[in-house]
Amino acid sequence: MKSDPVGIVIINYNEGERLVEALASIKKLVTPVQEVVLVDDGSTDGSVEWAKQAYPGIRVIGPEKNMGNVSRLRNLGMGALRSNKIFITDSDIVLEPDCIEQLLEAHKRLPGAAILTPRLLYAEQKERIYADGQKLHYLCTTIAPSRNRSVGEAEGEITETAGCGIMLLDRTRLDGTCYFDEAIPWGWGDDGQIFRRAQLAGYGCYNVPQAVAFHYGKTRTTERAQFQVQNRWSLILETYQFRTILLIFPALVLYEFFLFALLVSKGALGAYFRGNAAVLKNLPRIWAKRKRIAQIRTVGDRETLTSGPLYVSPALVANPFLNAALRAASAVFNFYWFCVRRFI
Asked: Which residue intervals of 124-241 are DSSP H helices?
């Protein structure tokens, strides 16, 4: 089967050996690759030299010093490509040979598809799912029903998705929404913001489980809590309709208490306050972005938000009491959404 050539952007910071493995998997792709750009964030482990040896002809761009702004790095990579089909990946991702081909085939079948994501499996446990069709909870957090499940337990249907850092973009369909907001720091939502804008503009965002890649995961707890708090409220204030915010406000308040208690129990109270302080500081910028998003919106919140089991890293809710509290909270929030959704 013949597909349009794609351009590939790889984001890297000090992942030398894994970067070599990622590039080896790109060489094995059955899809024609027009160009490969490595955006290196000031690596000091020799990554750039290793990449040039492993993939002759690769273009290397990026800052001399580490900046830690993944959205800026993704924008740099997209700006360096001529291709209209752009696959964005990380240096700790290994692709199956037909990964991009499966995404391109789904793109042809799905009307209005602008962003497509693969199923990500753990590289160390190849039958265990890392990410697979996440949804945006109306509380502006993640619903990840397949996370940590075995492949055999998960559904194999193409579904809509609200975020994943590994994605195929069609910038001919995304028009003015094909960019990453560089004011969104690395953490939860740094990839989801482009999905949210695309969906509000009426474009399709889909997860394709037949497209498979492997992720070298890292166990995280609260090191990114500040940015998760900040990005969540930024996304709410920038993209939720005022009617939605008003209707779900009681649930937002209850969730905020739950989040506050969780972070206090993990010794991350400072991260909670710093995240909220950053939102208050950025309110003028958030308001300006809200106006721009309103101009491209063609779809309402009821069509793009949903409810379901709240996802929290198992490392944070290993305590049986916290796990039970999470399940109880999910049930309460599900019932509340059932009551108010018809009015949104």
From this structure: 171-174, 192-200, 225-239
Strands 113-122 and 204-215: parallel
**Which bin fits 82, alpha (ψ -120 to 50), beta or left (φ > 0)?**
alpha
Question: Both 73 and 163 in a single domain?
Answer: yes
Domain that holds residue 28: 6-215
Co-location of 267 and 132 in the same domain: no
Averaged confidence pLDDT in the chain? 91
Nearest to 74 by CA among 39, 100, 103: 39
| 3-class secondary structure, 210 | strand
How far is Cα 14 from Cα 46, in angstroms, rounded to an integer?
Answer: 8
For 5-17, the pLDDT digits (tens) are: 899 999 999 998 8
pLDDT-derived band of residue 145, with 50, 70 and 90 as boundaries? confident
Task: Name the residue among 189, 173, 148 with its Cα closest to residue 318.
Answer: 148
DSSP 8-state symbol, 191: T
pTM score of the predicted model: 0.93
The domain boundary residue, chosen from 215, 242, 263 = 215
The DSSP string of 69-120 is -HHHHHHHHHHT---SEEEEEETTEEE-TTHHHHHHHHHHHSTTEEEEEEEE
Q: Are residues 10 and 138 in the same domain?
A: yes
Same domain, 144 and 20: yes
* pLDDT (mean) for 150-176: 90
Helices (H), the chain: 16-27, 47-54, 70-79, 99-109, 171-174, 192-200, 225-239, 242-265, 269-281, 283-296, 301-304, 320-340
In a domain, 27, yes or no: yes
